[in-house]
Amino acid sequence: METVTLDSNFKSEEYFINMGPQHPATHGVLRLLLTIDGEIIKKVEPDLGYIHRSIEKMCERDSYQQIVHLTDRMDYLSANINNEAVCLTVENALQLEIPERVKVIRTIIGELTRISSHCLWWGVMGMDVGALTTYFYGFRDRELLNDIFEETCGARLTMNYNVPGGLMFDIHPNFVKRVKDFIAHFKTKLPEYDRLLTNNIIFQKRTKGVGILSKEDAISFGASGPVGRASGYSCDVRIHHPYSALDKVTFNEALRTEGDTYARYLVRIQEMWESLSIVEQLIDNIPEGEYRVATNAVIKLPKGEYYQKVETARGELGVYIISTGLKSPYRLKFRSPGFSNLSLLNHIAVGGKIGDLVASMATLDLVIPDIDR
Amino acid sequence: MTIALSITKNIHDWLYSIMPETAAMYAEMVLIALVYLGVFAIAGLFLVLLERRVAAWFQLRIGPNRVGFQGLLQTMADAIKLLSKELTGTAKADKFLYNLAPYFVIISSLMALSVFPFTQEFQAFDINIGIFFLIAVSSIGVIGILLGGWSSNNKFAMIGAMRSGVQTISYELSIGLSLLTMVLITGSLQLSEIVEVQKSGWLIVQGHIPAIIAFMIYMIAGTAETNRAPFDMVEAESELGAGFHTEYSGMKFAYFFLAEFINMFIIAAIATTVFFGAWLSPFGITESIPLLGVFWFLLKALILVFLMMWFRWTFPRLRIDQLLTLEWKYLLPLNLANIVIMALLVWHNLTISF
Description:
The complex is a heterodimer.
Chain A: E1 15-19, E2 31-37, E3 40-47, H1 55-59, H2 64-71, H3 79-94, H4 100-128, H5 133-153, E4 162-163, E5 166-167, H6 175-198, H7 201-207, H8 215-220, H9 225-230, H10 237-240, H11 261-283, E6 304-311, E7 316-323, E8 331-335, H12 337-343, H13 345-349, H14 354-364, H15 368-371
Antiparallel strand pairs in A: 1-2, 2-3, 4-5, 6-7, 7-8
Helix pairs in contact in A: 2-3, 3-4, 4-5, 4-11, 4-14, 5-6, 6-11, 11-14
Chain B: H1 2-18, H2 21-58, H3 74-83, H4 95-113, H5 130-138, H6 141-151, H7 155-186, H8 191-197, H9 203-206, H10 208-225, H11 237-240, H12 250-275, H13 292-314, H14 320-347
Helix pairs in contact in B: 1-2, 2-3, 2-12, 2-13, 3-12, 4-5, 4-6, 4-12, 6-7, 7-10, 7-14, 10-12, 10-14, 12-13
């Protein structure tokens, strides 16, 4: 982008504009305090707290089974992975032996959740850069997944499928067949995504070289998930600290080095392919066995501190529990990916146009309830 | 058509028999204006419906199909809803300009409609500077957008309006120049003359390569002129909320909305007239039935309208600097070169005519 130095006689005036909390591009109640000079962004200040629900505080009051349900309401697009994170922490603390069947099912559903989240992101990404049709294409494929989830556990979005010790129910007899059908379907539809948006020249012009984030900045801002990986920062928890059945599968980490909006876009598209391959590897050999191990009705974690991180669709979600041996945690902290990813918005958006800000923000894939817990 | 002609003839005779000549002339003008106003207000509503059905078709949806047969009355119902709505506005708006703005937009688009030759006989206003009139009148609309955005005292609306000013002024050059390229063949700005010339082949055929280039430039610039995607910088909803009409509600909003669709029809109708022989049928197959002229005109125009809808529901939006780069660095030089090529073509009689 060329910068033009203006004649000193020409007086330009910076002004302040509120983007949000009710704005179509912020996808929720995020308020951005923009300082702009004409179309050029001078400063972006995110203002949070519009849907803060004190989830972490509520966790200090609730039993561990109840906490799982609260996590659905954080990053609602990867609800199942959030549930899994808490369950894994509790199970690790109790040193429970989890059946293989549970691990495999958790991983399959987790990857399907990731695909479903990325489908929605893809639709919204297109909408943010002005291609409204993508939204419906993304939703078409997401609906199929939601139907599978509904059949499995009765809920489509906030699933509550995991409980400490295993799963709420066993999978539905149709599950394997429907997932296979979905894989076959989605393999024909993902190239369509490329034809509609990825290869579009306007889209590439809008995203290439926009919102560049270097690897060093990605690390220092604590970026994780696709945002970090697009800058060449290998941060996939599934590879570095595999959990559940992820150590049984082989897949590539979607890594790119450009660090721009287009790279973040491509990383997510590649992640959908990788998730499909993970599901494909596991779906045929779900081991027989129990879907749940019995725990005490009142779970009391031994005194101590426990940490578990998982890779949600947005990045690294950490669950940190301090237990004093009571039925609810003394303190529970979620390290949510959205919060750290949002913190670098100012860094990547300054100097760009309003349109660039919207495009970059779309590839950060913000879910506001995840940021405002 | 003959019936319609005889009705107009009868009304004409009757008016001249009951009042002095000048008064009859005025009365006739008002009548024609009212007919155009009524017909195109309703046509605009159906274009809205068409857009919604086309969008639904692209987007794996069904679209409005409940009100009336296949949703034909849906936009009527919407218009009635908008009419009955309260007109809200900002307290610190410049009231006079704020209220004036929608009329600029709607009037400019309705005025432009008056010169189109729908058939040989059915043309309200055949002036010798037809093309010039069209370009001039259709650019009045941007004043309405600028006023609307500026006077509503809203920063988002203001950004939208400023974008619109920049965009429309830029792309008007391309519209004008690409039409002038075609005028080189016809040698006249009068629309009926332009159609007359096309009896020996539509201009897009007569002018072959430069004409096709001119047509493509015209369609790009025309889409930009109507502020539609991929050039909908003015109301880019993911960036500016609703853009320049953020603070408008009810019927004032509906004027902007309707004007957008009538403008789209105008852009398509200009292209039909200048490039595709207006009411002339392909290969003269229905030349003996002048009634079908309207059918051919509307068919061609609607195909082009569909093309523009196709653009809108497929492409992402450009960024404002890319929009200006496209115009000033690519389309304008190409256009100027194209005019020279066309001039050489006409000079050396290299046009194709049957």
